[in-house]
Amino acid sequence: MARRSNISRQTRLLLQAMLEAPLKWQHGYDLLQQTGLKSGTLYPILMRLSDQGLLEATWQASELFGKPPRHAYRLTRDGCAFAQSLEAPGSLDFAVRTPAKASA
Amino acid sequence: MRGWKTCLRLVTRVCLAHAISTMPLSRRSWAVAMEQESHFIDNDFDALGWAIGCVFASYVEGVREMSIYRRTNLLTAIIPVIMSLLALAVVLAVVTTGWERHLQDEGAAAHIFQLLIVGQVPFLAAYLVTSKGRRVLEIVRPMAFQAGALAIAIGSVAFFKL
């Protein structure tokens, strides 16, 4: 497994978004809309998470006629555990930025 | 309006093709994924923004995959161009603001200009050293940019008779 680097705010944002539906395969553009990240930030993070075994990716045939297959992503078991550990109270400043989740 | 939209989509496609070609081979499937995803973005401006981001991502990955040696080579190719442009900016500042034009002898502006020009020498040397083993054309191309930027900076001094 590759080295885990420091977790950026953007990575936390992405992990948080993916943790909301951990079993659901999500697409790049949907994640971009959920997180507000730019594609130039989002994809390098997805690549890193995939390298670290926190994310799995697969090609899915499009449901829309004439559209190409899409790459879909979801957290692995390790990814879910890692994202949850970041969300845990006292884990850096994550709880400060997500008061609703922190108080739940 | 339709022509404008077509133009935006064309630029988007060109950017995405560029992102695929510049993405390191080990990451190529990710670039293809980005390109495929763009087909699901309805808004043309959003699609263009997406494509520009993809180009940025491919550059980031390209630099990440480079060895320290190659990164140094890239950096030493770029820095002299930036220094020449800064020297040009100094010249333009002198011309537009009249900074130190009243001085009989060389002032701070002239010294900054000279330092920016002479300071390129170590970078050029480092560039040549780290270019070892590369094809001549690959080495010469960035040097042509460096020479062009240098010519513009020095030429501006002659042009404005400073």
Which sheet architecture does the biggest sheet of chain B show? none
Question: So how many helices of chain B?
Answer: 7
Q: What do we call the CATH topology of chain A?
A: Arc Repressor Mutant, subunit A
How do the SSEs of chain A run, as a string of H and E? Answer: HEHHEEHHH
- Specify the helix fraction band of chain B: over 70%
Give the H and E element order of chain B.
HHHHHHH
Rg of chain A, Å, rounded:
14 Å
Concise overview:
The complex is a heterodimer of chains A (104) and B (162). Chain A has helices at residues 9-19, 28-35, 39-51, 77-87, 94-97, 99-103, and strands at residues 26-27, 55-60, 70-75.
How would you describe the overall organization of this protein?
The complex is a heterodimer of chains A (104) and B (162). Helix content of chain A is 50%, strand content 13%. Chain A has 104 residues and is α+β, with helices and mostly antiparallel strands. Chain A has a single domain, classed as Winged helix-like DNA-binding domain superfamily/Winged helix DNA-binding domain (Arc Repressor Mutant, subunit A), CATH 1.10.10.10. In chain A, helix 1 crosses helix 4. Chain B is an all-alpha fold. Chain B folds into 2 domains: 2-65; 68-159. Chain B contains 7 helices and no strands. In chain B, helix 4 (68-97) runs antiparallel to helix 5 and helix 4 (68-97) runs parallel beside helix 7 (136-159). The chains are: A alpha+beta (104), B mainly alpha (162). Chain A binds chain B through residues 27-29, 32, 38-44, 46-47, 57, 59, 62, 64, 67-71, and chain B through 27, 30, 33-34, 36-37, 39-41, 49-57, 60-61.
Quick tags:
heterodimer; A: 104 residues; alpha+beta; Arc Repressor Mutant, subunit A; 6 helices; 3 strands; disordered C terminus; B: 162 residues; mainly alpha; 2 domains
